[in-house]
């Protein structure tokens, strides 16, 4: 690069052929032109203007580098469409150091395409205002409060990243109090012991153990269909994976959350039924699925529901959903006096408060919880000798 000495400032030609200009100001610092010039005469003209400002005492320090970066970011934001930014956000989002789970990513993608992008997709991120968010939210279907809350929360999270990480906004335009939360319209009612026994008895024999694990073990459907023979050790179920069905294909991955990887001690009342299932319906290979489809592979939800709907009718609980079995299991455990931390450990829930991460489960407490759950059923059987809930469930 050629440098040319001058009475004021200096000019040099870069290898690209463009010209760069710089000068020493009255404050003793050296300042360069914010960009290079195509012609030398333009660089000279820029220096002449700076010298004139100094001579007339009109000179002031130019914007610092950080200000120039901020201006460049603003310029980028003015052109960056929300749909492009949101797509990148979903693909690169990390939660506790891990990328989004396949089902979560699919859920976010659907929320964007169906509820958010039709309004904001073509708009620059920087142009989204509080007023536009409020107008959009008012038009969301009030008859789907959960979807409405999820869509709002997703928009708020994406725009939050646009503030903190990419400096595309000064403040989050999502300021509607309570919009990201909703109360369940249908609150699940847990099964009592007799209802659970009736439900299990009405299920096909090869699905009874699955129903017992869903309730007494409080396992999720995705965790159940991914269970293998090697995951059962005595009275312990080792939850190490989960399976989800997306776009017609099964994907096996880690459990739903980091806390989902856990060992669950089972109450003794269901162990005979589990052992019978292992002996009768599960291949001897250690990696054999506990609850496979009749033709092999993962059990389809539609197959399970076909039998479950009949069984819940027999139990006189037409309101029951499969996931409510897990809720029933949580209630059964809570009734033993289990602490919040112990319940969260048993259910594989991530703690809502960071402080609870450091509250460790008492050693051996999970086994005590399982024993108390079985004891509660035994006490019920003693009070009502004409029935034997433990045998049915």
TrEMBL record:
The record ties this protein, via Pfam families, to: Integrase_N_phage, Phage_int_SAM_3, Phage_integrase
Question: By its UniProt entry, which CDD domains does this protein fall under?
Answer: INT_ICEBs1_C_like (cd01189)
Point to the regions of Basic residues compositional bias: 1-15
The ranges of region (Disordered) come to 1-30
Keywords, alphabetical = DNA integration, DNA recombination, DNA-binding
Record-linked PANTHER family:
PHAGE INTEGRASE-RELATED (PTHR30349), PROPHAGE INTEGRASE INTD-RELATED (PTHR30349:SF64)
Q: What is this protein called?
A: Site-specific recombinase XerD
Organism in which the protein naturally occurs: Mycolicibacterium chitae (Mycobacterium chitae)
């Amino acid at each position: 690069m050629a440098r040319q000495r001058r009475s004021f400032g200096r000019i040099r030609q870069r290898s690209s052929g463009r010209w760069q200009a710089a000068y020493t100001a009255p404050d003793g610092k050296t300042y360069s032109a914010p960009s290079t010039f195509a012609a030398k005469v333009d660089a000279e003209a820029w220096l002449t203007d700076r010298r004139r400002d100094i001579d007339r005492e009109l000179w002031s320090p130019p914007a610092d580098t950080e200000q120039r970066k901020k201006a460049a970011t603003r310029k980028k934001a003015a052109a960056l469409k929300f749909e492009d930014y949101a797509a990148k956000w979903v693909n690169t989002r990390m939660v506790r150091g891990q990328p989004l789970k396949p089902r979560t990513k699919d859920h976010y993608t659907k929320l964007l395409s169906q509820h958010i992008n039709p309004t904001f997709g073509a708009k620059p991120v920087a142009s989204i205002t509080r007023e536009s968010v409020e107008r959009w939210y008012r038009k969301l279907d009030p008859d789907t409060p959960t979807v409405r809350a999820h869509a709002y929360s997703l928009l708020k999270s994406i725009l939050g990243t646009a503030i903190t990480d990419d400096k595309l906004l000064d403040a989050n335009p999502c300021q509607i109090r309570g919009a990201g939360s909703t109360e369940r319209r249908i609150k699940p009612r847990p099964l009592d012991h007799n209802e659970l026994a009736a439900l299990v008895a009405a299920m096909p024999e090869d699905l009874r153990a699955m129903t017992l694990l869903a309730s007494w073990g409080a396992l999720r459907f995705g965790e159940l269909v991914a269970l293998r023979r090697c995951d059962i050790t005595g009275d312990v179920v080792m939850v190490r994976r989960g399976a989800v069905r997306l776009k017609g294909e099964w994907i096996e991955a880690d459990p739903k959350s980091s806390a989902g990887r856990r060992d669950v001690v089972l109450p003794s009342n269901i162990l005979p039924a589990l052992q019978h299932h292992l002996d009768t319906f599960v291949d001897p290979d250690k990696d054999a699925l506990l609850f496979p489809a009749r033709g092999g592979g993962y059990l389809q939800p539609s197959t399970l529901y076909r039998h479950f709907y009949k069984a819940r009718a027999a139990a006189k609980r037409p309101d029951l959903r499969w996931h409510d079995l897990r809720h029933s299991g949580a209630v059964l455990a809570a009734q033993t006096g289990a602490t919040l931390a112990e319940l969260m450990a048993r259910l594989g829930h991530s703690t809502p408060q960071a402080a609870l991460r450091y509250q460790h489960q008492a050693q051996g407490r999970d086994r005590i919880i399982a024993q108390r759950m079985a004891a509660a059923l035994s006490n019920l059987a003693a009070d009502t000798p004409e029935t034997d809930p433990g045998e049915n469930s």
